[in-house]
Specification:
By secondary structure, the chain is an alpha/beta fold. 41% of the residues lie in helices and 13% in strands. The protein has helices at 18-24, 26-29, 40-59, 74-88, 102-113, 131-137, 160-171, 195-198, 247-285, 312-321, 341-345, 350-353, 367-386, 389-392; strands at residues 6-7, 68-71, 93-97, 117-121, 142-146, 179-183, 202-206, 217-221, 289-291, 302-307, 324-325, 356-360. Strand 3, helix 5 (102-113) and strand 4 form a beta-alpha-beta unit. Helix 4 packs parallel to helix 5. Bound molecules: pyridoxal-5'-phosphate. Pyridoxal-5'-phosphate (PLP) is lined by residues 73-75, 101, 103, 148, 152, 183, 185-186, 206, 209, 217. The site of pyridoxal-5'-phosphate has 13 residues, from helix 4.
Length: 394
Amino acid sequence: MNKRKVYLDNSATTQVRKEVVDAMIPYFTEIYGNASSVHTYGQEAKQALSQSREKFAKLINAQSSEEIIFTSCGTESDNIAIVGSLLANEGKHVITSKIEHHAVLFTCQNLEKNGYKADYISVDKSGRINLEELTNKITDDTVIVSIMHANNEIGVIEPIEEISKILKEKNKNRKNKILLHTDAVQTSGKLKLDVQKLGVDLLSVSGHKFYGPKGIGALYIRKGTKISPLFHGGHHEFGMKPGTENIAEIVGMTKALELANEEMEEESKKIYELRNKLMDGIVNKISDVVINTDMKYAVPSILSVSFNYIEGESLLLMLDMAQIAASAGSACATGSSEPSHVLSAIGATPISAQGTLRFSLGRYNTQEDIDYVLDVLPKLVEKVRQMSPVWNNR
Ligand SMILES: *Cc1c(COP(=O)(O)O)cnc(C)c1O
């Protein structure tokens, strides 16, 4: 029996790097003080916190470390960015896209239930946002535009710099500046993040998507941005995220981003080649497939494929029995039978959307992993199709 295990679900979460674990351990066992305490234990923890903040700020080209707050996850960063902006500024309108992660999408839907107004901008076949529609939706009431940097299901990268230019133009004649937020959870550690170049006011990051620990995130808040906290308590994180700081994970996430930035060029080239090999193999060996990821605009790590006429979930389970881990669309959507909102937005037919899998590659994948998948996958697709009435009656 094959003993190979292949993890192709790196957009759901990643293995924590050994260097990251090593960097974190002393903050559990030795330097465990509360960063707010006056004694040496506390001061050592505080020093680690401020050093991490300095480093993190540099890694995303922020102007000052005071523009970084550490949060509990990407979801929390997204919530603080959007809800916090609406609480602090005049106006009740948020603009986002139809293909956001639920951390943004459901936050906006919930705001609508509470007297705010939200618009969800459509995307083209590649998943790229309609800039004209976005421009036309801006009103005097608009407080914030939140568009993801790269999508977690199909990998498409959105034109954040162009959106920033549009907003800068609009902001020239406005008293209340429209803020720009981007959920960069799928690009941090994969693309070089530069908040100046992107022209964003707010940017969300999550540690566990780039070989850091789970339950830690960051939010970049450009100096001068009016924003209110969602939780109240101590003065931690400039009052934006009260609660005793999670020093070990802050150190770990910062280390992970540092390593990712150093190795980015080499690593993305490797992952890009593996992803293309996987795609070419699938297209050559399996009939009736649709590639949902537009290679021209996508991050190198994600490949979304629709295997027409089958249930993605059945294929997923068979792959799991062969020790191959992938995902149906996005990890967060599992358990629901609705077609993914992202696939609907790019115009996928129901017959395609149903049989869609997301393969997301990472730094630990090898050529042999892909060879193994390309050996197993065509046989499993054939098997699932033979059992499928829609395939037999097509
Ligand atoms: C994973 C993910 C999130 C959520 O991050 P958590 O740290 O798990 O809360 C948000 N946005 C995108 C695009 C993601 O892929």
